[in-house]
Amino acid sequence: MKLRIGARLWVGLLVLAVLLWATGLLVVQRYPGLPSPPQVTVWGLPALRYARDVASMLTLGALVVGAFLIPGSSRRVLNWAWGWAAIWLLTLAALLIFTISDIEAISIFDALNPDAWWQFLASSYIGHVFVFQFLAITIVLVFVALLRRTSAFVIKSAATSCAVIACGAPAFLGHGGFTGGHASMTISLAIHIAAVSLWVGGLAVVVAVLLLDATIASALLPRFSLMALWCVIVLAETGLLNASLRESSITAFVGTLYGSFILLKATLLGWLIYFGWIQRTKVLPILETSLQTRALVIRFAGTEFILMAAAIAISITMSRLGFETPATTLNTFTPLAILTLSLLIPALMNTVLRNRTQLSAPRNARITNLLCNYPEVASMLLLVMVVETAGIGIPVSVLGTNAGTLVSSLLLLVTGWLWFVSINGPRRLTGIVLVMIGFPIAVILSDSLSEASTSWRLILLTVVAAECVFASLIFTGVKALVTEPTPLESFHV
C-alpha cells in the first residue's frame, strides 16, 4: 500500500476546519431540556467523514487503474487497493461510533458499548446503511485479495461494482434516504458521489503510478483521460439535477449559504474541467517524451488535488449545514456568493476567453487596450458593483427578486471579468492593489447596508480568501493565472 497517494487531498482537512469554523458548525448546539453530543464528536465527525471519503476514493481509483487501465493489470496497484480498502473499513467503524455519539447525544465511551452500537445497527435506518457499507467493503477486500492471484474479468467487474456501490451508499444517509419524494435526489447523489470517487481516486493513483514508472504514460493516460471525461459528464449532470431539486430559485443560489456553496462547487468544477482539457489537448499529444509528460501531469494534478480537496470539504460542510430558505430582503447576496461571482468565476472566464479576445476585431482590441491602460476604472466599477449588489440592490427593488437577482449576478460577473481584463496590461499592479485595498471595505460596507447582517466569521473568511487571490496575482503574476499556454511554457515544452 502506498500511503502517499494523493497526499495533497489531505489539505482538505484544513479547508474543512476553516469552513466549519466560519459557518459556526464547530459549536455544540444546546437546547433546554435536551442532551447534546460532546464537543469531541462535533469536531471529529466531519474529519472522519472526510477520511472515509478519501479512503473510498483511493480504493476505487486503485482498483480501476490496477485492474482495467494498466495493460495486463498491476498487482502492486491492486495491493494499494486492498490496503486503502482496509483503511476505509477502519474509518467507517470509527465513523459509526461518532455517529452514534452524535445522534444519541452520548459520549464516545458510551457509544463504544457493544449494546449501544448493536442496537443502533439493528434498529435504525442509518444503522442499516452502515451495515450495508460494512458488507460491501468486506466483499471488496475479498475480491481484491482474489485478484492478486487471478485476473479473471468476472472478479474484476464484481470487485469494481461493489466498490462503486459502497462509495455511493452514504447518499442514503441523508434527506430522507430512499423514501417518498427523496428517491430521485438520493439516487442522483449516489451516482454523483461514485463518479467523483472514480475521478479523484483514479487521478491520485495515476500520478502515483507515473512516479514509479513514467514509461507507462503513453498507455495509461489516454485511457484515464477518457474515463475522467465520462466521470465529469456524469457528475456535472447529476450535480445539476441535485442543485435543481434542492434550490428552486435563482435567489437561493446567492442568498443562502447552502446555495452559495453549490455555486462555489460548480466554479471549482469549472476550473477542474479547464485543467483536464489542458491535459487532454496539450499533454496527451506529447506522450513520446515521457519525462516531460510525467512532470506536466504531476504539476497539473497537484493543483487539481487542492481544488478537489476543497470541493470535498465544501460537500461535507453542506451536509452539516442543511438546506436554507432564501431571505425575503431586497439584497440577498451572501459574501461567498459575492466572492464567487466577482472574482472566481470571472477569473475562469478570462482564462478561457482571453485567447479569443486577442483574435477579435480591432474595435474590441482598442477597448481592451483602453481597459489595460486605465485599470482604475474597472477596479472602481467592480467595487461599486459589489456594494450595489450586496448592500443596495437597485435591480432587485426595480425588477423583483428573481429577475433583479439575475441581472445583479450578470452585472457582477461582467464587471469582474472586465477587471481581470484590465490587469492583463502594463499597469496591472495598480488595478490589483486598488481592489486589494477596496474589496474588504466594500464587503464590510455592503453588510452594514444590508437588511440582514452576516456573521463576522463568514465576512472574515470571504475577505481572507479574496486577499489570497490578490496576493497570488501579485506574487505569481497575472499571466500565470489567466493565459492558457503558461502551464506548458513553464516546462519549456
For the record, the CATH architecture of the largest domain stands as: Up-down Bundle
How is the CATH topology of the largest domain named? Formate dehydrogenase/DMSO reductase fold
What is the number of domains?
Answer: 2
Shape: globular
The number of helical elements comes to 21
Structural class: mainly alpha
Describe the fold and architecture.
The chain has helices at residues 12-22, 39-69, 75-104, 108-111, 114-123, 125-147, 153-168, 183-212, 217-246, 250-255, 257-283, 290-321, 335-358, 362-373, 375-392, 394-399, 401-422, 428-449, 456-476, 478-482, 486-489. By secondary structure, it is mainly α. The protein folds into 2 domains: 7-321, Formate dehydrogenase/DMSO reductase fold, CATH 1.20.1630; 335-489, no CATH class. Helix 3 (75-104) runs antiparallel to helix 6 (125-147). The radius of gyration is 24 Å and the shape is globular.
